[in-house]
Design goal:
With 166 residues, this protein is α+β, with helices and mostly antiparallel strands. The protein folds into two domains: 86 residues, TATA-Binding Protein, CATH 3.30.310.80; 53 residues. It starts with 8 loop residues before the first strand and ends in a 7-residue tail after the last helix.
């Protein structure tokens, strides 16, 4: 389950209808009441760590259940943090990317004109901040790895088959 990706995910085709797949997952999750919390929407299930065990880096498993080809059901699972944590990183990357873009352009123009290219220092700091955000995200992903594995086991036991996330 260790990954250098931003959000581990998996895909699986099932020989069930969408409703049967959703019912199977819900029945298995409700059998182990304390294992996770569930939010259900048509074609979508969100599995979360219970409130008592949840921390800042706790993951959630978002399952998208769609009708596939040949009457099979296509399940896509994406592991990720809570929305507030995800927003911090999205806006952090947006801010550092914007600062890097504009300071890089300004620094290039300064260098081209033969002026002191002080904006390239800002560009370097923005790139370092983006790398720092990535390392911080990987650190958090490692802190939530046991809970991610727990959510994955709940899904696998519900489906009765294994699927490796990537």
């Amino acid at each position: 389950m260790s990954s250098f990706g931003f959000r581990p995910h998996f895909s699986q085709d099932l020989d069930l209808s969408v409703d049967e797949a959703q019912t199977t997952i819900l029945r298995a999750v409700k059998a182990g009441e304390d294992d996770c919390e569930v939010k259900v929407f048509p074609g979508f299930i969100c599995l979360r760590i219970p409130e008592k065990d949840r921390h800042f880096w706790s993951p959630r498993l978002n399952l998208s259940i769609d009708e596939g080809e040949d009457g099979k059901t296509h399940v896509t699972g994406v592991y990720g943090p809570n929305a507030n944590v995800w927003s911090i990183f999205v806006y952090g990357y947006l801010l550092t990317g914007s600062v890097a873009l504009f300071s890089g352009i300004l620094g290039w123009v300064q260098k081209t004109l033969g002026d002191p290219a002080w904006a390239l220092w800002i560009f370097g700091l923005a790139v370092a901040a983006a790398i720092g955000l990535y390392v911080f995200a990987q650190f958090g992903q490692k802190l939530g790895a046991a809970q991610t594995f727990r959510l994955h086991q709940i899904y696998e036991s519900a489906m009765g088959r294994t699927e490796d996330p990537h």
